Amino acid sequence: MPELTKVAQIKDIPVGESIAVQCGRERVAIFNIDGNYYAVSDMCPHAGGPLSQGYVKGTRVSCPWHGWQFDLCPVDENPNDGVCRFPIHIQGEDILVEI
Ligand code: FES
Fold first, then answer.
1. Distance from Cα 62 to the centre of ligand 1, integer Å
2. For the segment 32-88, what is each residue's pLDDT rounded down to a tens digit?
3. What pLDDT score does 98 carry?
4. Who wins on pLDDT, 79 or 97?
5. Distance (Å, whole) CA 83 – CA 78
6. Which of 40, 60, 66, 83 most suits a substitution to test ligand 1, by most atoms within 8 Å of the C-beta?
7. What is the pLDDT of residue 3?
8. What is 4-98's CATH number?
9. CA-to-CA distance for 2 and 4, rounded, in angstroms?
10. DSSP string, 29-76
11. Which end of the chain is more exposed for a tag (fewer CB within 10 A), N or C?
12. CA gyration radius for the chain?
């Protein structure tokens, strides 16, 4: 059964920024792109690089270790690229991730 975990408040992730948070066993990267939030596994499927520290252009993030690129698309558009995507919920000022 999916579990909602509060990971941050809106003020914690300004537009264009990202953070990494621990949700149970999962380390999750949260991105704010133009006010839209995206949550993906913070572990690159190539060799485990921290996607939360990657370079973002548009809705694509480049892994900081070797440059593989991934689309920060919504969960229901899963491109099957090895990156787990998680639904985000905004409740008031809180950001919650569905694991
Ligand atoms: S670890 Fe991400 S591209 Fe190699």
1. 9
2. 999 999 999 999 999 999 999 999 999 999 999 999 999 998 788 888 999 999 999
3. 93
4. 97
5. 9
6. 66
7. 84
8. 2.102.10.10
9. 7
10. EEEEETTEEEEEESS-TTT---GGGSEEETTEEE-TTT--EEE---GG
11. N
12. 12
Specify burial of residue 59 (Cβ count, 10 A radius: 0-12, 13-18, 19+).
Answer: middle
Q: What separation in Å is there between the alpha carbon of 92 and the centre of ligand 1?
A: 35
State the distance from the centre of ligand 1 to the C-alpha of 66, rounded, in angstroms. Answer: 5
Query: 43: closest CA among 58, 59, 57, 23?
Result: 23
Q: Is the pLDDT of residue 2 over 80?
A: no
Q: Which residue has the tokens 């950001």?
A: 95
Provide the residue ranges of all domains of the chain, joining segments of one domain with +.
4-98
Q: What is the pTM of this model?
A: 0.94
Instruction: Quote the pLDDT of residue 86.
Output: 94
Helix/strand number for the chain, H first, E second: 0, 10
